[in-house]
């Protein structure tokens, strides 16, 4: 398990720069495409994630970070559920601008900061919960990403990783494969004006470790109580682990 490798990039720094530039270009159309291409299922996946960590959100003093927060949908759901400010971070400035607009329009007050998930400007053992939705797959070094989450989590703190995955059923995997390699790049490329972004998406999903392997990597990194839940036939998986 290394990290994302967009076509035409060599090395972690180039991969990271490519990913950052790509999300910057699609930021204004990101939400529309997300809902459209997932048939609105993305809302359910995020809601389920928030439900699974609700016990932590209910604690009055819980410190929560939504990592790779993008345009802020998970952040807003967490803050609605927990009624306290949730930190949000991302390395794409245009994505954070979209998130800020949505947060302000809801009169929420989540503090946002621009940072690479591999080098967070946060103190050791300072958080009770980290969520990361559809961001982990894009990291240039998965192991380093897990280590950084462990560093900033308090002992007993939880990481929740929501990510695309490989459906275990062969027939469904074939249908899903056709949709993600043919339909998704065509529609996504046309609406976003960035065809490379929506060719990268299925490629990055195909290369990303399956749910079992990701769980194993989390254990290897040092997480305990690791478990995962597949959603939508395994197209998506939510992994939880504790420091
Ligand atoms: C697919 S979007 C997901 C956004 C949001 N979490 C959601 O659920 O819609 C992935 C996000 O991860 C961010 N990202 C990718 N790699 C990152 C890194 N190394 N550090 C910080 N943010 C990163 C991108 O900028 C992008 O906003």
Protein topology:
Blueprint: H1 12-26, H2 30-37, H3 41-52, H4 54-57, E1 64-67, H5 73-82, E2 87-90, H6 93-105, E3 112-114, E4 127-133, H7 142-152, E5 153-164, H8 170-192, H9 195-207, H10 211-221, E6 224-231, E7 236-242
Parallel strand pairs: 1-2, 1-4, 2-3, 4-5
Antiparallel strand pairs: 5-7, 6-7
Helix pairs in contact: 3-5, 8-9
Bound molecules: S-adenosylmethionine.
Describe the structure.
- The protein is of the alpha/beta class and 243 residues long.
- It contains 10 helices and 7 strands.
- The protein has helices spanning 12-26, 30-37, 41-52, 54-57, 73-82, 93-105, 142-152, 170-192, 195-207, 211-221; strands at 64-67, 87-90, 112-114, 127-133, 153-164, 224-231, 236-242.
- A 7-stranded mixed β-sheet has the order 3-2-1-4-5-7-6, sandwiched between helices.
- Strand 2, helix 6 and strand 3 form a beta-alpha-beta unit.
- Helix 3 crosses helix 5 (73-82).
- The two termini are 20 Å apart.
- Bound molecules: S-adenosylmethionine.
């Amino acid at each position: 398990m290394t990290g994302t490798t967009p076509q035409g990039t060599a090395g972690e720094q180039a991969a990271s720069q490519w990913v950052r530039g790509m999300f910057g270009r699609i930021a204004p159309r990101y939400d529309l495409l997300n809902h459209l291409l997932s048939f609105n299922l993305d809302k359910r996946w995020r809601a389920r994630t928030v439900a699974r960590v609700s016990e932590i959100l209910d604690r009055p003093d819980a410190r929560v970070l939504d990592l790779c927060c993008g345009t802020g949908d998970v952040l807003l759901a967490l803050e609605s559920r927990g009624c306290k400010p949730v930190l949000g971070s991302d390395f794409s400035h245009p994505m954070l601008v979209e998130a800020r607009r949505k947060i302000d329009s809801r009169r929420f007050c989540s503090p946002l900061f621009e940072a690479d998930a591999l080098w967070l400007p946060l103190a050791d053992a300072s958080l009770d919960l980290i969520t990361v939705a559809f961001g982990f797959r894009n990291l240039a070094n998965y192991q380093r990403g897990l280590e950084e989450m462990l560093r900033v989590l308090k002992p007993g703190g939880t990481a929740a990783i929501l990510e695309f995955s490989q459906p275990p059923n062969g027939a469904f995997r074939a249908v899903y494969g056709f949709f993600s390699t043919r339909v998704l790049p065509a529609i996504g490329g046309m609406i976003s004006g960035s065809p490379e972004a929506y060719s990268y998406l299925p490629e990055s999903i195909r290369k990303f470790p399956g749910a079992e392997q990701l769980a194993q990597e989390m254990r290897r990194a040092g997480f305990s109580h690791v478990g995962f839940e597949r959603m939508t036939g395994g197209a998506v998986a939510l992994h939880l682990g504790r420091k």
